[in-house]
Q: What sequence folds into this?
């Protein structure tokens, strides 16, 4: 079982979201990937207005149309627009088929603007995915550091969250959230640098590591290699490739009556 | 078993992290497991060591002692060191190496450096393959005290007009910030690209649409990268078996001949 936590339609070719999704699924099939999580639309923006994130989420909903048996959608929101984001969570998750949220670089995730969003997601059992990248030359103003995620996770120790990209600079990212048992790491979207999965396995355990690719900008293959090539037990690899994400998503899937 | 010629392998220690495979015997075990029959092998010692002649001697010894006939040494040359020409001479004439590898960014020069043109001429005279490492690590995750930009290959296209028979292999150039090198060098028929940092879904297939497949070489960047990445990218590509065979072994075999 392989579930990919982290995919985008923007970087896949195609005239429509539907065509882009078909293209992605075809190539995921080559790699034996069963399910894809999709977020953000065909044209990204760092700091989207409510109109913009609604449009991007509509595109994801369109992409999912023929692929509900193969893909899940996460709603893209902007914590700077608190009420509009909560409304979008209700539209896409409570009343729609989506199963989580994607937070990108509009605002750092240690901000208290996120609190009502986290609380609403917890009520809905929705997945909280936060992009994080620690850039050595300096982060952009709204871009979250792994330590920002640790702050948020400390405020909500019972709410599961995912540290996108393992923080980019993964040796620091893993350390930053090591003590936050409610945080899992996303292996997607950085070079297949040897040792990342071994360190995560050693420091936080297999159950807190989730495979993702960041397709189509990244290759499924290079990111799968972080699991297949790791010097960890085979049982841990299997857990990372799919069951960990499935376990995290099961409450909301069951609430929606989705078989997976 | 499927076989590979891996054009991007490196021995010894990366200064900032221990790697599975930074012991030669362990690395060779991984390469053999996946069917690598030949690996063009540099040394991480060549990135920062000033005694680069010593680094190249150790590379020779390691390849000879533990290489199982797979490891083909590519010594390092740093044109900012005194008497660097002697390192080229030793690699070619004493060690009988088939190629050398340079790290212009870590060695602190641009490709329009006067001595770089001299290096091209020396490689051409000795029929050495020249590997240019555009990067080793993503610029964003480098050590704060050791930040180096990817190599800008713009000057190379003009320089190579004087050396149409020199074989140049560009390593680790496809990162988002360095992808522009492909456009600059796509017209140079004697320049080859290995795939270790090529990304995007089916990225090898789209690369083969931009440059002739005959100029694409298999490369893993092991042990810095998980070796499996390069193999799986070929699986993902959807290219024909004929084209895959060219990338896996045939193109590199022709360049090495």
A:
């Amino acid at each position: 079982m392989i579930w990919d936590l982290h995919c985008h339609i923007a970087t896949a070719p195609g005239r429509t979201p539907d065509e882009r999704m078909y293209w992605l699924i075809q190539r995921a099939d080559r790699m034996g990937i069963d399910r894809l999580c999709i977020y953000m639309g065909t044209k990204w923006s760092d700091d989207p207005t409510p109109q913009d994130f609604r449009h991007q989420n509509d595109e994801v909903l369109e992409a999912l149309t023929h692929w509900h048996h193969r893909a899940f959608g996460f709603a893209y929101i902007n914590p700077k627009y608190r009420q509009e984001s909560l409304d979008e969570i209700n539209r896409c998750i409570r009343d729609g088929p989506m199963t989580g949220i994607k937070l990108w670089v509009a605002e750092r995730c240690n901000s208290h603007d996120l609190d009502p969003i986290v609380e609403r997601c917890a009520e809905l059992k929705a997945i909280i995915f936060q992009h994080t990248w620690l850039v050595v030359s300096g982060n952009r103003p709204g871009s979250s550091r792994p330590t920002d995620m640790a702050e948020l996770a400390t405020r909500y120790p019972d709410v599961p969250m995912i540290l996108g990209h393992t923080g980019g600079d993964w040796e620091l990212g893993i350390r930053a959230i090591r003590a936050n048992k409610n945080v899992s790491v996303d292996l997607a979207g950085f070079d297949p640098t040897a040792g990342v999965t071994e360190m995560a396995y050693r420091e936080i355990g297999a159950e807190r590591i989730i495979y993702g690719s960041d397709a189509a900008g990244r290759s499924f293959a290079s990111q799968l290699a972080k699991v297949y090539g790791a010097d960890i037990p085979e049982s841990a690899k299997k857990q990372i490739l799919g069951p960990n994400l499935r376990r995290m998503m099961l409450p909301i899937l069951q609430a929606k009556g989705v078989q997976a | 078993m499927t076989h590979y010629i891996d054009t991007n392998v490196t021995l010894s220690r990366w200064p900032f992290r221990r790697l599975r495979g930074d012991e030669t015997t362990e690395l060779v075990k991984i390469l053999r497991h996946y069917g690598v029959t030949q690996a063009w092998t540099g040394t991480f010692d060549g990135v920062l060591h000033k005694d680069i002649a010593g680094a190249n001697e150790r590379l020779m010894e390691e390849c000879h002692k533990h290489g199982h006939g797979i490891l083909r040494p590519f010594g390092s040359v740093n044109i900012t060191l005194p008497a660097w020409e002697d390192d080229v001479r030793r690699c070619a004439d004493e060690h009988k190496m088939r190629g050398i590898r340079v790290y212009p960014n870590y060695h602190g020069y641009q490709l329009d450096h006067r001595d770089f043109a001299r290096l091209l001429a020396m490689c051409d005279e000795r029929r050495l393959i020249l590997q240019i490492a555009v990067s080793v690590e993503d610029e964003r995750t480098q050590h704060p005290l050791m930040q180096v930009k990817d190599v800008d290959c713009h000057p190379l296209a003009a320089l190579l007009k004087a050396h149409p028979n020199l074989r140049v292999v560009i390593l680790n150039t496809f990162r988002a910030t360095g992808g522009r090198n492909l456009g600059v060098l796509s017209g140079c028929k004697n320049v080859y690209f290995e795939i270790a940092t090529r990304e995007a879904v089916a990225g090898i297939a789209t690369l083969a649409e931009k440059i002739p497949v005959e100029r694409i070489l298999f490369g893993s960047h092991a042990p810095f990268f998980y070796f499996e990445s390069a193999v799986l990218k070929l699986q993902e590509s959807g290219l024909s078996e004929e084209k895959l065979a060219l990338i896996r072994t045939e193109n590199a075999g022709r360049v090495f001949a």
Chain A has a mean pLDDT of 98. Chain A is about 40% helix and 15% strand. Residues 251 and 257 of chain A are 10 Å apart (CA to CA). Chain A has one domain: 75-256.
